[in-house]
Amino acid sequence: MAFMPLAAYGAPVLTQGMTTIELDWHWATRTGGAVSAAQRRVLLGRLIRALPTMVSDAVKTRIGRRGQGRVEFGSIAVPDSALALAVEQEARDSVTPHVLEHSYRTYFFGKALAELDGVRVDDELVYVASLLHDLQLEHPTPGRCFAVVGGERAAQFVRNQGAPEDRAQAVGAAIAAHITLGASENLADPGGFVSAGAGTDVFGLRLSDLDAEWVQELLRRHPRLDFKRHMLKAWATEGAAVPNGRAAWLTRYAAFPLLVKAAPFEE
Predict the structure, then answer these.
(1) All structural domains of the chain with their residue ranges
(2) By CB distance 3.0 to 4.6 Å, which of 101, 156, 176, 254 could disulfide with 222?
(3) Which residue windows are transmembrane per the record (predicted)?
(4) Is residue 146 within 8 Å of 164, Cβ to Cβ?
(5) Mean pLDDT by 10 residues, the chain (267 residues)
């Protein structure tokens, strides 16, 4: 991949009047993920605009309307580069089983949505970012967002494997961006890919676009392992540790716990 400015990765552009407010990798590493008052106002506007689509999607899923999105497990070529294999081992060594399975589901949900939308992705990059995106979810750092700390840790791991600096930075940026409201609108961006895949797994977003039998097969291959309970516990701890972060904002304004509980998965 040719070098791209860091702001090009994982940078949903938030606008307020004539002011552009970016929650990008520069912002993340500089502030630790602290959201300003102006950023909170713009995020709230994005949430309000997203609500009709979220409600419509939830209704379609509940009444059994499902799409055709899927990837064939027997033919999909999961990345097997030296970096990808090292990342798989790092994920197994670093996160709990329920987070590991969520990370794999995030990748496969993202792949299915990208193929459905006809979006080309850098497969190694989105695989690495998906597997490492919740490295710090259950290990909060007071005052610094878990997605930012996890992004920094993942970037350093990728760097240590000998990957080019722009690849390491892109992984970090994707992980830092994945909990920013609106990131999932751009599946071509690694942060958007991870956000979309995780959004399907956590909330059931766009589940109505996916083939129901394929989803059940994915859950057999990568079971949820009481994921809702673990996620809610980790999210509450993160919100308390980083009261000015995006996790706390999503709890306060987007009813994150209720959305998780209402997701169309048993656990």
Answers:
(1) 6-262
(2) 101
(3) none
(4) no
(5) 36 44 90 96 92 89 91 93 98 99 99 98 98 98 99 99 98 98 95 98 97 98 98 98 98 96 95
